[in-house]
Amino acid sequence: MCYTINTKQPGDGHEKCKKRIIEEYADTLKTLAARLDTSKTPVPSFMMAVTGTGNYAYRRKGGIFVVPITTMKN
């Protein structure tokens, strides 16, 4: 499962806003994974949120990867 996040928000609180958005998407990914009918589809092997900005990818507590699109080139 993967969500794409556009974190370019106007204003001074860019990093604070980015963290809040990532937190919301992580919660959404967990909710979607819990709603899957595992008799019809397998459990996700990983969950990932793709951000529009950032310098590095990391794995959050709970196993969700946060990956900037810029780290996926080449």
State the gist of this model.
This protein is of the alpha/beta class and 74 residues long. The protein is built from one helix and four strands, in the order βαβββ.
Keywords:
74 residues; alpha/beta
Give structural notes.
The protein is an alpha/beta fold and 74 residues long. The protein has one domain (2-72). It has one helix and four strands. The protein has one helix at 14-35, and strands spanning 2-5, 47-51, 58-59, 64-68. A four-stranded mixed beta sheet has the order 1-2-4-3, with helices on one face. Strand 1, helix 1 (14-35) and strand 2 (47-51) form a beta-alpha-beta unit. The protein starts with a strand and ends in a 6-residue tail after the last strand.
Instruction: Give the topology string: H per helix, E per strand.
Output: EHEEE
- Beta-strand residue percentage: 15-25%
The CA-CA distance between the termini, in Å, is 22 Å
Give the total of domains. 1
Number of helices: 1
Q: Which sequence of strands runs across the widest sheet?
A: 1-2-4-3
Mean pLDDT: 80
What is the molecular shape? Answer: globular
Q: Main beta sheet: strand number and arrangement?
A: 4 strands, mixed
Uncertain segments of ≥5 residues (pLDDT<50)? Answer: none
Structural class: alpha/beta
Let me know the number of strands.
Answer: 4
* Backbone CA Rg: 13 Å
Fraction of helical residues: 25-40%
